[in-house]
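Batch job 17 of 40 flagged for manual review because the log was empty.
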Amino acid sequence: MLSLFVIGYQLEPIIGHIKFTILYLLSGIVASVCSTLYYQNIETLALSYGASGAVFGVFGAYIT
């Protein structure tokens, strides 16, 4: 969360509050869907939760 704060503090003024929120939420949703599909594909029962996918989506936007 500290890294999200540091990167988000720099990225949010550039893209705006609403776009940042949409970016964060969509990144989290896409990461969760991809994780679920991956674990279904390898036939393993696993629960996956957290904000790591959303944080990496913010990092990707920052790098881009």
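Reviewer: the log was empty due to a logging misconfiguration, but the result itself is present. The chain is about 80% helix and 0% strand. Unflagging and moving on to job 18.
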